[in-house]
Amino acid sequence: MTFFPPGAVRFLLHGDEAVLGAALARTPAARPFCEVRHTDLVIAMDAKPAHAMRRGKGTSMWNAVECVRTGEAMAAVSAGNTGALMAISRLVLRMVADLDRPALVASWPTLRGHTAVLDVGANVVCDAERLVEFAIMGAAFHRAVRKSTRPTVGLLNIGTEIDKGHEEVRGADRLLRDNGFDLDYRGFVEGDDIARGTVDVVVTDGFTGNVALKTAEGLARFFRAELRTTLSSGMLSKLGALVASRSLKKMGERLDPSSINGGPFLGLNGIVVKSHGGADARGFATAIRLAADLARSDFAAEIERNLKLRTPAGGADEAGRSAA
Amino acid sequence: MTFFPPGAVRFLLHGDEAVLGAALARTPAARPFCEVRHTDLVIAMDAKPAHAMRRGKGTSMWNAVECVRTGEAMAAVSAGNTGALMAISRLVLRMVADLDRPALVASWPTLRGHTAVLDVGANVVCDAERLVEFAIMGAAFHRAVRKSTRPTVGLLNIGTEIDKGHEEVRGADRLLRDNGFDLDYRGFVEGDDIARGTVDVVVTDGFTGNVALKTAEGLARFFRAELRTTLSSGMLSKLGALVASRSLKKMGERLDPSSINGGPFLGLNGIVVKSHGGADARGFATAIRLAADLARSDFAAEIERNLKLRTPAGGADEAGRSAA
To answer: Does residue B35 sit within a domain?
Structure first.
């Protein structure tokens, strides 16, 4: 029997055992923590979610999620096809309470700590009612992961005045103000409030959130490239960079796009974390760390408890649909 | 008669002459280039666009736009109420050809130069046909301002596969592919393609574009704050910063959010540039410089010529509406 130090994470690696075995052979230190579950079936990156649901059984992605359902694994992490992962997770794990679809959440480093932004990709079109669900799930997530007792919540819009934006965000704003949720709701916030850390949780639809997240990742890369160019332009700059190299390296790591990698699907009966498809080893490790942190917390119970604070589904739903 | 060096810009300052006169008294160098046009009527920052249109006559904003119509001014610049400025500009200057509403465009510094992003705030809900108009206007703008002969155009989405995103972007993609525009259309791009400079023009709806722009501004401020903190943490860092100070200062200026300030309204019979409400003096100067550059170019003629390349309005419109 292998000894696992307290807090260690063990892995069930789903995929082709020839490939996974060869990788493990190159990293003997990882072997005691890893167990390969062979399958040579995979979900293609361009597979439709509906196809993945019908034909996905036995693929590496399906098997990973299935292990969460059976309790063999505490969480599943995948860098594969987002739509397929969501569809399989919904089918296998089912949604909590009366939620419709899971939300993807991203944790952003900010001037004040971390801000959770959701949805960042799963729900392209969102009505007011769904945005309210995101607010509840985001607050519960932040409470569980950041140990904050009463996270502040803002709704992403293009201005803070009450008449700004489209009908969906205005409808969600009304619901969040009127329906007596146990949330510290702060009203509308704008794009620059994310990095400012104005609120702990920023709620938006999956299209806007995805664009904002990827725009930020692109800008972070741009900034690092600029800094590199600046500090290698001429003798004095190079010397300065050399002298300050330790601090600069630390900052570079903090601003690394991979430091914000890893988005859990919120609202499932089980933990599934989506890693960015283009993540490197460090980025993927960040996603795994997040999954482990969530597995050790009780955020699922938090979400369920908060959803129960909603007014009876009929009332909220009606208001949500009419606003959408 | 005052002598103006070639290329100098002259200003008609619309507003309260007591306030403007006092400001000019403090900056005698600016006086020969400025003429005050008194009015004590203003458009409030929270005024509704409809109200501004009905009651705006004689306000500083209205007068500034009216001077563009009469030809007294070549361009108007305002940091005021965006919705009101757009409504007054549409009413006073009218739209080019069969365009519906103007688009706000932002110029982003990228790894490869500059990328024009539009719409960044004016049109919150956009159907496929409107996104196509943005593509045409953005390409014309880029051609005029950056002297590029054949700008590349991309449509902002949450993936590059043909079935990604909502119906509006998929519909616009079909129109841009099928309708034989004189555009170098490159298909879908994602948020990180903006800073990467993958294409010269990025097309999106006003809600998404506004959030992306403000997210980027917030992140740029965050980076600068991080860099400042890093380079003042400990003796070695401070020394390094001192040695490399000149390069770092130059980079700071380049990454200043105000360097991307100033968004022209595209599609009007005349030039109107909206400055960010929170812009400082440098940011406002950037907006003025952009207005002057546009006034010296022939981008309006470019847009008109390109719009004429569309298939007969009926056909394009039908396809656009059915896709939306």
So the answer is: no
